[in-house]
Amino acid sequence: GGWAQTILSGSLYREYGLVPGPDYEYNLVMHLAVLASDATLMPPSITYSLYRKRDQVLMAQFTAARKIATNTPDMYQHPCDPAIRQLVHQVVYAITPILKPQDYPDADGYYFVHTPIGKRTPTDNIASETMMLYHWFSPTFLFDRPDGTSPGKTTSRAFGRYGFGCTGDSKGIDIGVGPALPLSQADRISPVPVLEVKFRLVKPLADAAAGQPKEVAYKSGYSFGQYPAGYWSLSAVRRGNPGAFGVTLQQSGPINGGTYSNAIVYEQYLNDRKIAEGTMEITAAYSLCPKIIPATVTLSEAGAPNRPTAATICTGQTVQLNASNGQDDQNYSWLLDGKLIPNQTKPVLVIDQPGQYQVQVKQTNVCDTYKSNALTIVSKGEAKTAVIQGDSLLCPTRPLSLSVSLRPATYQWFRDGQPLLGATAMQLPVSGPGRYTVRTNDDNGCWVLSAPVTVRAGSEVTVQMDSIPPICLTGSRPVLLRASPGGGKFVGPGVTAGQFDPQRAGLGRHLIGYQPVGSGGCLLGASQRIAEVRPDPPIHLPHRLETGPGVAVILPGTIGAAYTYSWSPPRFLDSPDRGSPTATPTESLTYRLQVTDPSGCTSTDTLRLDVVRKVYIPTVFTPNADGTNDTWELPGITEFPQAVVELYNRWGQAVFASEPGYPRAFDGHVQGELLPIGVYAYRIKLQADRPILEGTLLLAR
Which of 121, 279, 537, 604 is 20 to 30 A from 150 via CA? Predict the structure, then answer.
């Protein structure tokens, strides 16, 4: 036999035989959905193994031959993308053994598993390749007669489907169905039995070697019932005839395409007691829905979609909304102020009243719906007044234009009451002095003449204003401003009586301007300058540092490479002109640091360096003969001539004890042998009146 690669779904259940057979005939059916091209690769036969659940004792084995249940394959078509199709054959392995109650009395019940049948279709969430199905029954399932006919004819039929889903669609996927119970004759029994079928998600099975069902392994990012953006859940709904159920797989969050396997166990109950259960495995293939092609709403004259018009409605006037985008498979509905307009389903809508209009578009084989932005149609009312904007001074070498902000509208400009030829735009280049007006046909369709603006001619004056160098804020004084021609006025932040005061202006870049007297406003040259007030260098030294006698310590003063530094006094410092020099003091003292930026702005701060008589204990050293950190140096211990250093291994055994004063630093060797890598405990007794120092030391390589 072959080895199918694309088992899409499957279930194992007891079928209720429509043709009468012997009593206690157990019609066990495995129903598989297999890609049509793989149907003949399924095993010609499989073996069912029946185990007692209590102790996994093998009770019997049965052979089932393969049967392809459909002469022609079924067509599975994606609901939101008709281009996605699958041809699927239904493959069945069925047996009909006689299982008498006296042979299967154990209250814990019995279960069927089977030999391998092939590989499930590759999915995004399941790592295991092989598929295993499972069916359990209780002794009650063999002899009860809830259908009122012959013994042992109870059924548990339910099988899963291969389903398609649309990404973002909240409807879920219909994946399971079946007449779970033959309830049509249940009312013949007295009292009438309470028959139920329940469904729940479980982990799929990969195999059942030696009768032990084994669950699948999941791929990274997935687990039972979970995927990266949410989880799956089930809902079961009774349909149609008594006993018919449908099962829907629902996703709680977005799935951006992909194929996923899940397993469902169906449980059959009689009078609140479970009498049978089985598994079905289903595959759900999600595909991104094609996006709807949006419709752009335009406004035109009624009956003339190519002649745009203003969004106004006058008494007795109609306008037309146009939404067609050339898609024959789209359906339209129109809304006015958020409410559906009845019987308006075409891409064109002729209207005669104001309001907010929207079109809603649906498209065949597309999941989403498009709703346009609201287009507001206003009623024609009072005319809107146009206001001319622009300078009123015309300079010889500087262009001047006037404009109006009213839109949409049509325009006609006038100078001294006469229309200007071709001046019909919102903006007008001014060619000479005069009295200018504009007549607008506003969006209400009304002509309005604006208030006049008088444009006068001005003379040009060449202005030169001296630049202002950057200024440091601290200690700064007012700067005298200079410009020509003289006699004008300086304006800007911090400017008083021709001087710029950095203290008043504050930090930042300030625009300072110069206005000559009698210039008429037509200024040439530099009539504006930037005055930059810079902050002091941002120096922040710690208030105090501590070190031992002769123990080096770095003074942290560096704030950037562009600054210069000066430490005083220079005592004990290796480089007083570095931002962070190294100090090796033998006595306490206070350092002062001055920092200067490239503009000459300075800041000062102080740091107290206290020399404290103490021992500094490193927690790691590497005796590997590389010349670095090869011995366990204890800076400051020379201040304690009676100090004794001891080391212990992890079992509390002493491995090293120094002579008084620790005259030779520990090099990791004991009796000529290098200690193993590891963590050692240390005890350091400095002197009788001091507490013992304890901790751990890592000996590394």
Answer: 279
